[in-house]
Structure formats: structure tokens, C-alpha cells
Design goal:
The chain has 3 helices and 6 strands. The relative contact order is 0.20. By secondary structure, it is α+β, with helices and mostly antiparallel strands. It has a single domain (4-131), classed as Thiol Ester Dehydrase, Chain A, CATH 3.10.129.10. It is 23% helix and 43% strand. Strands 1-2-4-5-6-3 form a 6-stranded antiparallel sheet.
């Protein structure tokens, strides 16, 4: 398993998640990742709530890190389904991606999104397809 710093360097190229949205990798491990996003005014919708797209972006980023880091193949999302549970109460979102099932050609991850106050914000599931890494 590689290092947290190496993962951060690799996934810093995911500019939409990291630079525009503020997603950060907090932990990595075998088939899981924990990522965070500090909420700012840019994450709010016209009514002042946190946009579902911001929550989904963090979940997608956590899935990407967990399913691709330190692997001999790449994984792409085929299906992603979000169930939004509650509006965040805190200022930081946390997304933990966990591998549920891994196969020869596809995988299934569950991403739980909470805030730092343990508010259950969303559960997002991803079906991924394993593909060859780009040369």
C-alpha cells in the first residue's frame, strides 16, 4: 500500500473535486478511503442549503480514490445512486467509501456521507467497471 501523500499527489489531478470543490483525502486503506470537504458559500444553492451536487461530488471523489488507488487496473463509475438523508448541520462533510463486492470486471462500493457532528447526510452507492489503465 502506498502512502497518503502519494494518493494526494495522484488525485490532485482531479481538479474539479480538489480545486473547485475543495475535496481532500484524509485516509486511505485497503479498499476504502475517507475524504472531506469544508463547506463554504460556494457549496450553497439559491435557497441557502448545500447543493446535492456538492455532496455527490465528494462521494464520487471518495469512490474514485478507494477504487483506483494502488490498483493494477483502473475503475470507472457505471452507476451512481444517491439517497439524501438530511441537510448537513456542520461545516465539514466526510465521505467514507467502502468496498462491498469486488469481481473480475466490476465492483460495488457504498459511500456514507456525514458531517463532523455525525449527521447522516447521504448514502451513495457506486457500481464500477474495471478497465485497463491508460498507457
Amino acid at each position: 500500500m502506498g502512502s497518503l501523500e502519494e494518493a494526494r499527489k495522484i488525485f490532485s489531478k482531479d481538479l474539479y473535486a480538489t480545486e473547485l470543490s475543495g475535496a481532500e483525502i484524509k485516509e486511505i486503506g485497503p479498499d476504502y478511503a475517507l475524504c472531506s470537504m469544508t463547506l463554504t458559500e460556494k457549496h450553497r444553492n439559491a435557497y441557502g442549503g448545500i447543493m446535492g451536487g456538492a455532496i455527490y461530488t465528494l462521494a464520487d471523489f471518495a469512490f474514485a480514490v478507494a477504487s483506483n488507488y494502488d490498483k493494477d487496473h483502473a475503475t470507472v463509475s457505471v452507476v451512481g445512486q444517491a439517497s439524501f438523508m438530511s441537510a448537513p448541520k456542520g461545516k465539514i462533510l466526510l465521505a467514507r467509501a467502502d468496498l462491498i463486492k469486488d469481481g473480475r470486471t466490476n465492483c460495488f462500493f457504498e459511500v456514507t456521507v456525514t458531517d463532523e457532528l455525525d449527521t447522516m447526510v447521504a448514502v451513495v452507492t457506486f457500481n464500477g467497471a474495471h478497465v485497463r489503465k491508460a498507457e
